[in-house]
Design a protein that fits this description.
The chain is α/β, with parallel strands linked by helices. The chain contains ten helices and six strands, in the order αβαααααβαβαβαββα. The protein has a six-stranded parallel β-sheet, covered by helices on one side.
C-alpha cells in the first residue's frame, strides 16, 4: 500500500469538490440534477427532451459546465437555472460519521470548491453531517460563472482564500479538473468509483496528466491519511 504521510506532510489546505466526491456516486444524487438540466433546456429552448439532452452534453463538454454554455450561447439568467436544477431530493444522502471525523481531523483549513452553487453545497454537506467541518465554500457564483477546469477559476479560489497551492491538496471525481491543480503544485487525489455512474460520459474519465492518488472510497482514504499523519 502506498504510504500517504510523506506526500501530505506539508499540506495545510484541504480542497474538496462536492458532487460525487464528498458523497459516493452510488447515491445517484447528480443524476437528478442531470435530468433537471435536460428538462430546463427543453422548456427554455422549446425542444424535445432528446434534443435537449444532446445540447446539454455538447455545451458541457465545450464550456466546462452546461450553465456556462447556456450563458455564452443563450444569455440565460444563471440564478433561475441554478435554482431549478438543484431543486432535488437529498434523502439518498445519509450522515457519514467516519467521513466527518476524518475531515475534522485534517490539520489546517478545509474548503469545498464546486461548480454548483453554495445553497446546493450547504444542503449536501448538511445532509452528510459534515458542513460544520469546512471553513468556506467557493461556488460557481464566486467563480463568476466560469467553471473548473478553467485555470482562472482555480486562481480566483486561491486568491479569495489566501490558499498556497504548494501547501494544498485537492480531491476531485473528474480527472480533467485535477490537471491545473497538479500544475500548480497541489497534491491531487481522484475519487473514482469502481463502476462509473450512468450519467457520466466516457470522455469525462480521460486523464490528461499524472494524478498522485486514486481512491474509490474517500472516507477510507482520509481515515488512513489522518492515521498516518
Amino acid at each position: 500500500m502506498q504510504s500517504l504521510a510523506p506526500a501530505f506532510s506539508h499540506v495545510t489546505e484541504w480542497v474538496f469538490d462536492l458532487d460525487n466526491t464528498l458523497y459516493p456516486a452510488s447515491a445517484d444524487l447528480f443524476s437528478q440534477i442531470d435530468v433537471r438540466m435536460t428538462q430546463w433546456i427543453a422548456d427554455y429552448l422549446e425542444v424535445e427532451r432528446e434534443e435537449a439532452f444532446r445540447i446539454q452534453k455538447a455545451l458541457y463538454r465545450e464550456h466546462g459546465t452546461t450553465l456556462r454554455g447556456l450563458i455564452e450561447r443563450h444569455d440565460i439568467d444563471p440564478d433561475s437555472f441554478l435554482a431549478f436544477v438543484h431543486d432535488i431530493d437529498y434523502s439518498p444522502l445519509k450522515p457519514d460519521r467516519a467521513l466527518g471525523e476524518a475531515i475534522k481531523a485534517l490539520p489546517g483549513r478545509r474548503f469545498i470548491f464546486t461548480n454548483g452553487d453554495k445553497p446546493h453545497a450547504e444542503r449536501t454537506a448538511r445532509a452528510l453531517g459534515i458542513l460544520d467541518h469546512f471553513d468556506d465554500i467557493f461556488d460557481i457564483v464566486a467563480a463568476k460563472m466560469t467553471p473548473k477546469p478553467s485555470e482562472a477559476t482555480y486562481q480566483a479560489f486561491l486568491a479569495a482564500h489566501g490558499v498556497h497551492a504548494q501547501k494544498a491538496a485537492m480531491f476531485e471525481d473528474m480527472a480533467r479538473n485535477l490537471t491545473v491543480p497538479k500544475s500548480l503544485g497541489m497534491v491531487t487525489v481522484l475519487v473514482e468509483p469502481t463502476e462509473q455512474p450512468r450519467f457520466k460520459q466516457s470522455w469525462e474519465t480521460e486523464r490528461e496528466s499524472e494524478i498522485d492518488f486514486v481512491t474509490a472510497d474517500l472516507s477510507d482514504f482520509l481515515t488512513r491519511l489522518v492515521g498516518a499523519l
